[in-house]
Specification:
Elements lengths: L1 E2 L13 E2 L2 E4 L4 H15 L1 E5 L3 E4 L1 H13 L1 E5 L3 H10 L7 E2 L2 H6 L1
Length: 107
């Protein structure tokens, strides 16, 4: 189950933060994509606070990689189980990963 996470914009010069909660898979990726696309189109990038994500499938990995290719994506608070998934696929070396939202904001 997911919960709404409207982009939070901290101020001029900063990227908005999307903080989705719950599981994301084929059925919920359109909602997540809309949130990311809206923020990225308006601000030129987005910070994905992944701390509340409990599950992702390959459609979410595809969304993340496609977003990374077309806009400025920073991912913060990646839970250990997702760090493992990213490592298995080797995308942990490609993406902009940060331990906290504050670290992603100041990068």
């Amino acid at each position: 189950m997911t919960s709404p996470a409207s982009p939070r914009h901290p101020g001029a010069g900063s990227l908005p933060v999307i903080a989705p909660q719950g599981e994301f898979d084929y059925g919920t990726v359109p909602w997540l994509q809309e949130q990311i696309d809206t923020a990225a189109n308006k601000y030129g990038g987005v910070i994905l606070d992944a701390g509340g994500i409990t599950f992702i499938d390959s459609t979410v990995l595809t969304l993340i990689l496609m977003t990374h290719q077309r806009t400025h994506l920073r991912i913060a608070n990646l839970p250990a189980r997702l760090i493992h998934v990213f490592g298995v696929y080797g995308i942990d070396h490609v993406l902009n990963l940060y331990p906290t939202v504050d670290a992603a904001r100041t990068a």
